[in-house]
Amino acid sequence: MTHTAASSPESLPRTPLFADRDPGDVLREIATRDADIQAWAWLPEAAPEASVRRPGVLAGVAFGVKDIIDVAGMPTRCGALAMDAEPRAFDSACVAQLRGAGAIPLGKTVTAEFAFTTPGPTRNPHRPTHTPGGSSSGSAAAVAAGMVELALGTQTGGSMIRPAAYCGVVGYKPTFGRIHRMGMHVLCDSLDTIGWYTRTIPQALAVASVLMPDPSAPALSNRAPKVAVLPCASLGALTGGASAAMAQCVHALQAQGATLVFPSVDADIDELNALHGCIMRYELARGMMSVVRARGQLVSEPLRQAVEAGLSIDHGSHVRMQARRQALARKWEDLFGDIDFIVAPSAPGEAPHGLRSTGSSVFNRLWSLLGWPCLHLPVAVGDQGLPVGVQWVARPDMDWALLRWADALRVAGPFR
């Protein structure tokens, strides 16, 4: 079997990947629809760039930016009362790259407070009484609602993949360090990763060609993939819909000739998740310490408690945890050295009811700790009529291969 997919701006399909929409029209549409979803934290009164069409792969594409990432002329409030509202002077590196490819930053999307756990006001577009996930809640919801076809988010634990799962959109978290973080409010230095949401895999590939171009990335070989299936059972049970999504994906891969393996690594998975929690608390505490000390009365109680807990972890413990993290990462790179990608759950099930929590990131944290690229694929509809899907994961720096396999194999379902 032959698989082909785009690898550079020049080789991307010439058919339109994004709808041709005037940014002014997009703003007007958002004004009529966002009262119910509340995906946006800041929008301009008008779209001054609406008449400007810069050439590039993303020419004219309006996009949302998670409100911990700077955009020139827009405030960065981080979903927090403790932050000031003055406009930023410069674009973040990733926004500058997208702008250079012709895309237009439309506004700032809602984030959980400082991209941690306290939710913003955003609701799930498929059912407003349910969470959209977090912390990149506004970005995922804006794409799911069709307000924009591209939005930037970030992940420390599960903040890209979980909202993609709950909102039924394509979500991509690259290899750690692949996207430059200049102009981003960093929460955890060795975990935070910038990613993006789109409605389709070809759109995700187009964004990848701008944010992480790699003309030397080899094309897919003319063979079916070798795939590891990791249900991660030790992390908790899946709902019927999430289990069915895993089974549907596995069946689709088998039908296309994939070789499947089922490694037993639950003990490592449990340890990786435990390490993630400790390392995240240590780094979060030091990243947020100055804010809490200066404006603690404006910071949520969960964040204040997390800072206090993280400061109790000493440097020597952190060094030992990082060493163990690196040892497990080397072990897993060897273990999965001949695997093209891994199929694993994105979330325990459909988006939970209620808006006081962003849901569980238990199936995402180990990949954030390893720094491996992750791609959420919407696969089906669960028992409650909400989206369910799976995440595909690859070894570090196999980003292009992962996206190409997804484009070639096409297992995404009705929310794609």
Give the helices and strands, then pairings:
Elements (H helix, E strand, L loop, with lengths): L22 H15 L2 E3 L19 E5 L26 H8 L3 E6 L27 H8 L5 E6 L5 H7 L2 E4 L19 E6 L2 H11 L14 E4 L10 H16 L3 E3 L4 H30 L5 H11 L3 H21 L5 E5 L19 H6 L3 E8 L5 E7 L5 H11 L7
Parallel strand pairs: 2-3, 2-4, 7-8, 7-9
Antiparallel strand pairs: 1-3, 4-6, 5-6, 5-10, 9-11, 10-11
Concise summary:
Strand 2, helix 2 (93-100) and strand 3 (104-109) form a beta-alpha-beta unit.
Q: Can you put this structure into words, describing what you see?
A:
The chain is of the alpha/beta class and about 425 residues long. It contains eleven helices and eleven strands. An eleven-stranded mixed β-sheet has the order 1-3-2-4-6-5-10-11-9-7-8, with helices on both faces. Strand 10 and strand 11 form a beta hairpin. It is globular.
List key phrases describing it:
11 helices, catalytic activity, single chain, Amidase_dom, 416 residues, 35% helix, AS_sf, alpha/beta, 3 domains, Amidase domain-containing protein, 11-stranded mixed beta sheet
